[in-house]
Fold each of these.
Amino acid sequence: MTHRADLQDMSEIKQWHADKGPQYRLKHDRLLRVAAACFNQKGYSGTSLKDVARQLDLTDAALYYYVRSKEELVYQCYRRAADLGTRAMARGQAAGGSGLDRALSYLDHHLEALCGEEGPVAIMSEIPSLKPGHKADILERSRQHSLDFEALIAEGIADGSIAPCDVRMTGNAIMGAINWIPKWFRPGGPVSATQVRAQFTEFCRRALGA
Amino acid sequence: MTHRADLQDMSEIKQWHADKGPQYRLKHDRLLRVAAACFNQKGYSGTSLKDVARQLDLTDAALYYYVRSKEELVYQCYRRAADLGTRAMARGQAAGGSGLDRALSYLDHHLEALCGEEGPVAIMSEIPSLKPGHKADILERSRQHSLDFEALIAEGIADGSIAPCDVRMTGNAIMGAINWIPKWFRPGGPVSATQVRAQFTEFCRRALGA
DNA sequence: GGCCTATTTTAATCAACATTAAAATCCATC
DNA sequence: GATGGATTTTAATGTTGATTAAAATAGGCC
């Protein structure tokens, strides 16, 4: 499924970051978080590189020391978001208990990443305008994530902890609810991250539970 | 809450469309649907007016006979989406039965609009880059819609048809799931609109039901 | 102090669209 | 088949913001 071009893209990026020191990594990560916040708050077309740079006390041109292009900046934001999701999924899968328990564990971990200190996570609303290789990569990860979640649901149904339902649809519904969270949740807002975590998992427990 | 500038914007738009005939209205509506499809599939920044125009067998310049700017095109797409939501909400509120019944009725109507013949509905991911007046208008409608939905949930809790829960959170979760649907649902795809409607409402019934 | 690398800035450049103005075409009606 | 409004095209124009190249600065290390 993966084209030669994609692999090339991937390795290019690895090279790009490979030799840089830890200072670099730190700033690069900060860039990604700031950019994600901008994209979520001001929209993709609404945020210029200058906007992002200003928040980092930098010139727009300076960003090109960290990313090759705006497109790549978006891509890396999405990649970061996908990575956080994947990590949460791995933890959920590794958790003990019934299918329901593990599904909820995953959700809780993901919510923690979304609302917690890991900083703002980019909503993936501009996937289509990524260049082919990057788009394929993100879509692939995204697809895998969905499949993993559906698998958890299926296991839950099998072991009787989750009520029988259309796995695909249910997965999509919950994923949608998750993905939409950055739209309405603001750290430091009226609702705390802890509350969201508790209430959201509670919601899913009821939605899924047998 | 509404500024003078906003009102001005609104009336300007009314004037713009007021005198035109029914042919015009028809084509204008088609434009909005095609544009919504483009924005959803190719992203906002990924769709040029030329793209939209091509699908209508028109030149990009011709679109300016129907809209004043790209920004306004987006705004009208969002407005159309909001209107469909509002209509569904009105029908749901007017339906009989318990709070749960009415909430589900609203959802069903909204799903029908989203997946049915009314054509593709724009995902509102670029609200921030609307100009102030338009942004305020859309946000206001959106907020109202959420409030209405939360009210339905509250009524359901009051009459015992919906299990006690945090109304705001639950509303946000379900709205998120709804708003995300255009991301994965493709008319003519593997899953029919009817199936989505049935399964999604079923999901919400379980999530909400007492 | 001098050197080397990492980081950032200044000052252009450049391209992609959005947008506009004027002209052309289409179409119903007289 | 001529007239007038509605609709669309052709051909520029403009502006924004991404991108680049070369120069400047900062800081660790000898």
Amino acid sequence: MSNPDEKKSAGKTKADKKKSDKLKARLPRGLIDRGPQDLAAANTMLEKIREVYELYGFEAVETPLIEYTDALGKFLPDQDRPNEGVFSFQDDDEQWLSLRYDLTAPLARYVAENFDALPKPYRSYRSGWVFRNEKPGPGRFRQFMQFDADTVGAASVAADAEICMMAADTMEALGLSGQYVIKVNNRKILDGVMEAIGLGGDDKAGQRLTVLRAIDKLDKIGPDGVRDLLGEGRMDVSGDYTKGAGLDEGQAARVLAFTSAGGGDAQETLANLDAVIAGSERGAEGVAELREIAALITGTDYTDKVVIDPAVVRGLEYYTGPVFEAELTFPVTNEDGLPVRFGSVGGGGRYDGLVGRFRSEPVPATGFSIGVSRLLAALQLVDSPILAQAKPQAPVVVMVMERDRLADYQKFVAALRRAGIRAELYLGSSGMKAQMKYADRRGAPCVIIQGSDERERGEVQIKDLVEGAKASAQIETNEEWRAARPAQFSVPEADIVQAVRDVLARHT
RNA sequence: GCAGCUGUAGCUCAGUAGGUUAGAGCGUCGGAUUGUGGCUCCGAAGGUCGGUGGUUCGAGCCCACCCAGCUGUACCA
């Protein structure tokens, strides 16, 4: 070649120029790529959930990722900040469209639009990506997957109870037996309490919402923190101040009495709640509904799995009755060994008003949503055996020794594929060593080698890479390693399929 | 949005009170070994020191502003 210096400097200037022009490959924050292991794990999980939902008689339905903005929420995007919270954009005709941020609002739209054609109660499930334009955090992404089941057109709390039992069965199917709890509460009780302390009426809606959010943070900031948020406000450790709901001490005490009404068992909790809501008609209705749910669950397999917890409120406004939350009961730590606050991995409740937005008559509905991405992250952090069994099998690699014999190699590959064995021909341009490295990196169970020597004998070499790796532990020098050709044997061409099967059988 | 912390190679990080050509480990690629993945050894590629401006004879280091990331918090229809 020419003068290396000259070549180097010439190459460098060129590369520098090129580099500054090049796009930087980067992923927007809060979004992730998923590799083969992640996909296999997620698919396994989705399949388990789907089986449970099917068993309960729910049918599949899919709606698009994009909806008219007004179908998702109450208002059009703020002209100045159209992407606040959701991702929104305008169609050709200037109508606002948004990426869905949950699967409930699109279902309500679907049911309303096809109301007359659907059997009622309509029971359906669906999974898919949803999008939120919010600050991401551990286990929180801007695109994530949910798996929902809903019963529309059934006002009975039997529908709510069924949803809870199905949520429990789903967690069992995911191998989380004894490691989760489905918490149930009823919005009407809290509404009753708020009514009783003078927070009823439309003009107090904002204040009621603040109370809901304060209670929602109970497990994070404790009763004292909640008390501050119910009153004047709270200063957190970072010095950030959150304005409170402005309740007086008596009112706050009343709310806190409600959240701490949980007893040793359902009967005790219900009795405590009766006392707390004394005098509120709406509250009494809520307790009665909870009592019915308890009656359907107590004494069954679900007694310890589905529990009444008055501190569960859910942040959303649209819930009108029973609300549910699925929570993991084991501690989760991240890669650095630090504890991670996972919160709930699923939630739901009754939303009797949501379909009614599109129709003149009210339509009762209840449903449950599993945060697939978050639950998957939790399962991965605890090395769940459910995911371990989902490892994809890597292909057998047929190596290319003689460039002009590609047709022969292709025949080997085809024979393996016909036998249902994942196989591929090496399609790169490198030599044998690189091909071995490639196969190793792919995780191939074995490679097929046929050079001129083997071809003349009508044979192929099969090298078992898994056994070979074990053998390498005993071998010190490379000379020895290469001479020994560990875990390698020769078979007639006609016996390739059977020989590979034998190798695969050894490693599964 | 608010607050704190952090930005040096693909990754994890050194970088001495401002002082020549900014380093290491891992990873990547190549060679020793033109037909054998591991180990070992040798070598190479890879950097606008987050950006801009300022102080200085001189800035990866000091100052200002900006940007990005992380953590907490708020919001999350």
